[in-house]
Design goal:
By secondary structure, the protein is an alpha/beta fold. The chain is 33% helix and 17% strand. It is elongated, with a radius of gyration of 23 Å.
Length: 203
């Protein structure tokens, strides 16, 4: 029996885990914390199992220690993504947050799935402005993709002008760094049927 645990990243819990013989000994969002706890002998589960070290590569770890953290293949994961986007398109879910590394095809999958459900990209319609210029029924068959930088006030205006459409924020990370914008998004992404957000400021 090996005295070395396997360090891996569990995408479901978004945590680093140290495992041995199919059993998780320690887990944390901080990789160094997991390694340090086991190597310093401060992890009770590891100490009871006789585990004194942690490794990350297959060559240094015994086969017996390996556990599989990823339950689904990449094709299965994109299948789930398509299903979730269809739920947004038919309005059975109010919002969806997608994260992952760049270049995987997340944006392409989202846009192509929305178009596959019969929705139209508002950018393809010449002369179509905000929802105030379009009737509600027509507007509900549109989606808008917002890319790039946004301030909190710009976000508020975007949400208002596209209030009847599905809005896709793509690589718009700047809003997540502004606490005001985050609060606006929390209100907009709420699970209630009717979502009201306010901009109570003099300017």
């Amino acid at each position: 029996m090996s005295n070395t645990a396997v360090l891996s990243f569990d995408v479901r819990s978004n945590k680093w885990t140290a495992s041995a013989n199919g059993r998780i000994l320690a887990a944390s969002h901080d990789k160094k914390y997991v390694v340090g706890m086991i190597r310093a002998g401060r992890c009770a589960k590891a100490a009871l199992a006789g585990i004194t070290d942690v490794c990350e590569t297959d060559e240094r770890c015994s086969e017996r220690s390996m556990i599989q953290t990823e339950k689904f293949s990449i094709n299965e994961r994109f299948g789930f993504l398509v299903d979730f986007v269809r739920m947004i398109a038919d309005r059975s879910a109010p919002s969806l947050i997608i994260t992952g590394g760049g270049g995987l095809g997340k944006t392409y999958t989202v846009v192509s799935t929305l178009m596959g459900t019969g929705l139209e990209d508002s950018a393809d319609l010449v002369g179509m402005g905000s929802d105030s210029a379009i009737d509600v029924v027509r507007s509900q068959r549109l989606f808008t993709v917002i890319k790039g930088y946004s301030t909190a006030k710009g976000l508020y205006r975007t949400l208002y002008e596209n209030r009847n459409r599905i809005i896709v924020f793509d690589d718009c990370d700047s809003v997540l760094k502004d606490p005001v914008a985050v609060n606006l998004l929390k209100g907009a992404l709420d699970s209630y049927d009717r979502r009201v957000i306010s901009w109570n400021a003099e300017s």
